[in-house]
Amino acid sequence: MRERPILRPGELQRSSHVCWSYASDAEHRDFLVEFFEAGLAANERLLYLAPPEHLQTTLSELAAAGLDVDSLLESSTLRVNELDEAYLIDGALRPDVHLAGHALLVGQALRDGYSGLRVCSEIVSLLGSDDACDEWCGYEVRADLLISRLPSIVVCACDLRRTRPTVMNDLYAVHSLHTGSPPCHSPFRMHAGREGLFLSGEVDASSADKVGRWLADALPDMPEPVVDVEGLEFIDAAGMWALLDSAHAHPEGLRLTGTSERFRRVWAVCGYDTISSVQLN
Asked: How far apart are CA 20 and CA 69, in angstroms?
């Protein structure tokens, strides 16, 4: 599977949703300084979300690098908030509320005269359990769709010293872009594409359940339930069933584009070509 490019923080374009992994305090500092300096140069509002112990340390690092943090905070060009307060309601993730809130924050930034919103979230502390990570990744697919339509850049920051490799692999799968080192690996990727979602890589019995759950989470947000599977290198019967089963999540079912001849042949052998909820090409 072709690797996505590793980008410098100053190279990130509007409507980007980025998984950023770092392994040292110096790497963290250098990235954020360049990331926020690029946002200021582009007249974007800046938002930093982190656990309490990170907030003051990061603000001090930004100030030491030459950013006038006090003035930025006073003018609301830079806003900060504690991670749990930003994402959790009564201790639980509420994806609908947070996605709507992000759209409102982007709109507010535009009304206040900024060209967009630039966000960095230190998300690792929210992903302590497998269930929490699974729910978060379903949310991230939805966030990728939303961010692709808005003048915002959102970076999900992951400290590799505190993150399980399996968690990083899942996060890598559901972001349109990745930066940092070392690159993570996932057998499949599912993120915003030209018309809807883009699914690539390999989907088999070990990953089919994740694909099905995360796709079912995202489909209700999509005006057109389109998934481009041209980038699939392999999919087995379990993966095809996951696609079929997810179609119930959208009133129009599911439309798969970019299907190969082999995909269509196996789909027919499974008997799925007689089921009207999923249309190929």
From this structure: 23
Neighbouring C-beta atoms of residue 161, cutoff 10 Å: 10
Q: Is the pLDDT of residue 14 over 70?
A: yes
Specify the pLDDT at position 182: 66
Residue type, 46: L
CA distance 246 to 239: 11
Residue (of 72, 67, 68, 70) closest to 32 by Cα position? 67
Rounded Cα distance, 247 and 226, in Å: 10
DSSP type of residue 233: E
- List the beta bridge partners of residue 159: 22
Q: How far is CA 170 from CA 140, 188, 232, in A?
A: 10, 9, 17
User: Which residue bears the tokens 């967009």?
Assistant: 116
- Asked whether the beta carbons of 59 and 66 are under 8 A apart, the reply is no
Q: For residue 9, how many C-alpha atoms fall within 13 Å in the half-sphere facing its CB?
A: 27
For the entire predicted model, the pTM comes to 0.93
Structure tokens given for 246: 């997810």
Q: Rounded to an integer, what distance in angstroms lies between the CA atom of residue 10 and that of residue 140?
A: 22
